[in-house]
């Protein structure tokens, strides 16, 4: 059994990030007799200057990328199909909004200290993509955290403490300086970079190859 450290740089409003993770999860399940993974999530904000309340997702994509309505519909259909293939149910809707995720990342960084980071990450993806939750809203974030067993009073403190916001910003800056400019970015053993959402088959082959090389060099 080979132990691998897997770092994932991601944002909770990035559909490709949850697709990529679900593919990774499936790959690790197939390799459960060969590899044991320690997963660590790291912050990346797609829209760090987004104001409270967010922006209509379709309007946002038009403004940022020039995406047409037809292209938006096609993209949502494709994402929904890819999500279904890896076991994630996207619920795109007409008035869907995109949000600032700084506070969500503060929570995730804190949850790591309580061994609840992976659970919170998945709960945030589901809240946003499946249940139409405004994940820049503190009450919503606190409820999500409490639902997975985190302490409410500590949640409130983390969300209001500027040092947590600075810690997120500093971590993001470190990843940018390391050359990570798009997500998901999956880093295996702190040296093998996998960019974008990969298929489960590709991930199985890559992980197996890295694990075997690691064993042969020991």
Automatic annotation (TrEMBL):
Matches recorded under Pfam families: DSBA (PF01323)
Residue span, DSBA-like thioredoxin domain: 6-207
Signal peptide: none
Ranges in coiled-coil conformation: none
GO MF term set: oxidoreductase activity
SUPFAM superfamilies: Thioredoxin-like (SSF52833)
InterPro entries xrefs: DSBA-like_thioredoxin_dom, Thioredoxin-like_sf
PANTHER family the record matches: GLUTATHIONE S-TRANSFERASE KAPPA, THIOREDOXIN SUPERFAMILY PROTEIN
Stated name of the protein: DsbA family oxidoreductase
